[in-house]
Fold:
Amino acid sequence: MMSHNYVIALHGGAGVNPQRDYARVEAHLADLVDRCDEMLADGASALDTVEFAVAQMESSGLYVAGRGSAPNDQNVVECDAAIMDGARLKAGGICAATDIAQPIRAARAVLEHTPYILLAGDGAKAFARELNLEMVADPATHFVLPVGVEAEEMLKLDKGLAHGTVGAVALDMNGELAAATSTGGLLGKRAGRVGDTPITGIGNWADSDVAVSCTGIGEAFIYAGGARDLAARMAYGGQSLEQAGASLLAAVAQNRGDGGLVAVDRYGKVAMPFNSAGMKRAVSGSQIDRTVSIL
Structure:
């Protein structure tokens, strides 16, 4: 039965530098969350909306995902992405994939067209080509420096653990939930490194009760249990959305990590906690005023 209540929440990554200007990011998030709000108001599904949102962030080049992804220590850009439909309890993802222009589109294709959850590396790239998804024609001209990242940071190895991710969660008017997350990974990461983003249940999760997209140090989120742990804290531990989000981030901190998340439950409640210097984020909905924040 249609509830007529809907919510969209976005993040453009945790770990911002308070000394840098994110005005372009704020403007982009404001416009994008408005467009997603309009989609949901017109009856779009949560799944289509989060895919659209993440694809737009990937294409913008403003974030460490898609066009804004950093090369690894072999000067190759490897991307990870995942998407999950809470109504069907079905997910798809890709990891360590090269030359896919919008990784979240490939993740959605894995969800819709295969019996699998995750495709990696050359296999993910070949799959994207088979489905005629947009590919990167010239990496030298396609990828750009995202807002808030200085050129010298692109030369760092993963010792610095500088990171960035984008994500979206949504509740649609049918009461269905979905989540999508995409990243270029740690700046200067070792070739082949994969973090939490494409791992369903860690960096990304959606079921009939909650949708979650995480951002931060992937290894710490993996050790902490990730997005599925948040859902379990609510289902089995009786925690509220806010309590579960705070508990997960406390566990991330205990595992020497930082980051944040956006989450929405089936009642339309939203949580956007973070334990880093800031997190690019935006939210809007039928019963929520549009808000865009960085710090």
Q: What stands out?
A: The mean pLDDT is 94. Residues 195 and 219 are 6 Å apart (CA to CA). The longest helix spans residues 23-41. The chain has eight helices and twelve strands.
